[in-house]
Amino acid sequence: LMLATAMILFGNTVIYIGLNYTIALNAGIVPVARPVIIVALSWVIFRTAVTGGQVLGIVVAMVGVLVIAVRGDLSALASLTFNTGDLIVFAGNIGIAVYQVLFPLAPRELHPYALLQVTFILGALLLAPFYALETIYIAPVTPNLVTVSAILAVAIFPSMLAIYFMNRGMTAIGPSRAGIFNYLQPLFVTLMAVTLLGEAVEIYHLIA
């Protein structure tokens, strides 16, 4: 239940909400802060030792996030304001970081497929009330080729496959080492945002 709450409710779902208010490139670079959050949470929850190299990595990662926040304009630090979408995406990344930190507590008796199935069933139950409220007070989902394709794409790729591979990776090498691979996300997001969405890469994106 903790894993489902962290990943499904406060992780992916919050990121999807944030993407309505920011560009994909920004949302793709914000996750460089996730390893920082993982190290911090590991220390708070499990009192895991923090090395000098990790501290240096934290500083470098936070500088990258800060560059995104000020759009590469250091003078903007004096009147720093965050894009609403960037903040929401950052909050979603905290949820995913909590998932990665708590993952070792999952029962070892559960087969990886069973763990994934249970996580998604609980996640769907957690989201059901919000889905009902959105359907009643905002707008229902109209079943057609576009909406069904979008739901299937989200369910298969960034949900089932991504979380399954993340689980297997963390089982093999542990959450801390697996957290390093979060730094690949900006590369993949940038390539897709430019080729599929036509977004422009600015100098500050490259610096970050």
Question: SSE layout and pairings?
Answer:
Layout: H1 2-18, H2 24-29, H3 34-46, H4 52-69, H5 84-102, H6 112-137, H7 145-173, H8 175-179, H9 185-196, H10 203-207
Helix pairs in contact: 1-5, 1-6, 3-5, 6-7
Question: Could you please describe the fold and organization of this structure?
Answer:
With 208 residues, the protein is mainly alpha-helical. It is 72% helix and 0% strand. The protein has helices at residues 2-18, 24-29, 34-46, 52-69, 84-102, 112-137, 145-173, 175-179, 185-196, 203-207. The chain is globular and about 45 Å long. The chain starts with a helix and ends with a helix.
**Low-pLDDT windows of residues:** none
Distance between the termini: 35 Å
- Helix/strand-derived category reads mainly alpha
Number of distinct beta strands:
0
Mean pLDDT: 86
Question: Topology as H/E string?
Answer: HHHHHHHHHH
Helix content percent band: over 70%
Strand content: under 5%
Please state the CA-atom Rg, rounded to the nearest Å.
18 Å
Number of helices: 10
Shape: globular
The largest pleated sheet is described as:
none
